[in-house]
Amino acid sequence: MPSKYYAVRAGRQTGIYRSWDAAKKQVSGFSGAQYKSFTTEAEAKAFMGGQVASQIKSTKASQPTQPTQPTQPTQPTQPTQPTLGYTVVGDNGTINAHIARLKPDEAIAFTDGSYNKTTKQYAYGVVMITNDGEQVWTEHLAKALPADPNDDSHQVIGEVNAVKAAIVWAKDHEFKHLSIYADYLGVHEWALGHWQAKSKAAIAYRQFILAQSGAIDLDFYKVHSHDAVHPIDRNIEVDRLVKKTLGLR
């Protein structure tokens, strides 16, 4: 039986999985899940980037597969909206190149959130990366807090609060531009207004993002989950940070 690639574009943890059992855990019972199986990794990556199989061009085996970036529709200019971008990134090389070209007033944040069912706590984690032109600096931000009994979004609370913590840190340190990398799709879609915010956490997050207009430029990068076929090193780092903060590992 030929092997398959299971692409989860919207789920608990997005990414490309090599078994249905692994992918099923991310989409089963998840409202609005988007997933599909493919026989080639190129097709799965294209699906993650918003393309269809017919848009994929064949490449020679000797050529490495390049990450697919979705074509974004033109959005009307709205003065109340911060400057936002949404790009799919699937390899460490692209991220390392981004870090290398950071300007002194720019920062990168890898964000993640998690929930501990036993202690009923959620946690957020952030790996902040800056480059002063001479050295790349990394700083960890993490905090565990009791879950809101009136909001059952649990892990989502950690995900969105990680982004908020990253933005606050960047503004406090007078950075003008922040690039946010996250594997949870809602972080990007709520910020862009593509998903309707319904939970308390999502509504508060959306309002927070809109309030940043004129204060800091933001753009967003969607990465595969930490247990996908090709995990992102910095995403693994922030996942471990969050789990450690919650006492899960």
Named CATH architecture of the largest domain: 2-Layer Sandwich
Number of domains: 2
Q: Taking Cα atoms only, what radius of gyration do you get, to the nearest Å?
A: 18 Å
Note the main sheet.
6 strands, mixed
Task: Give the CA-based shape.
Answer: globular
| Unreliable segments of 5+ consecutive residues | 51-68, 70-84
Query: Count of DSSP helices?
Result: 7
Order of helices and strands: EEHEHEHEEEHEHHEH
Number of strands: 9
Major sheet: order of its strands? 4-9-8-5-6-7
Q: In the CATH hierarchy, what is the superfamily of the largest domain?
A: Ribonuclease H-like superfamily/Ribonuclease H
Quote the CATH topology of the largest domain. Answer: Nucleotidyltransferase, domain 5
Report how far the terminal alpha carbons are from each other.
36 Å
CATH C-level class of the largest domain is Alpha Beta
Organism: Lacticaseibacillus manihotivorans DSM 13343 = JCM 12514
InterPro entries: Ribosomal_bL9/RNase_H1_N (IPR009027), RNase_H (IPR050092), RNase_H1_N (IPR011320), RNase_H1_N_sf (IPR037056), RNaseH-like_sf (IPR012337), RNaseH_sf (IPR036397)
Cofactor: Mg(2+)
GO molecular function: metal ion binding; nucleic acid binding; RNA-DNA hybrid ribonuclease activity
3D architecture notes:
This is Ribonuclease H. It is an enzyme of class 3 (hydrolase). Its cofactor is Mg(2+). Residues 63-83 have a biased composition (Low complexity). Belongs to the RNase H family. It is a single chain. The chain has 2 domains: 5-48, Ribonuclease HI, Chain A (3-Layer(aba) Sandwich); 87-246, Ribonuclease H-like superfamily/Ribonuclease H (Nucleotidyltransferase, domain 5). Strands 4-9-8-5-6-7 form a 6-stranded mixed beta sheet, sandwiched between helices. It has a 3-stranded antiparallel beta sheet with strand order 2-1-3, with helices on both faces. Helix 4 (155-172) runs parallel beside helix 6 (200-210). It is of the alpha/beta class. It is globular, with a radius of gyration of 18 Å. It contains 7 helices and 9 strands.
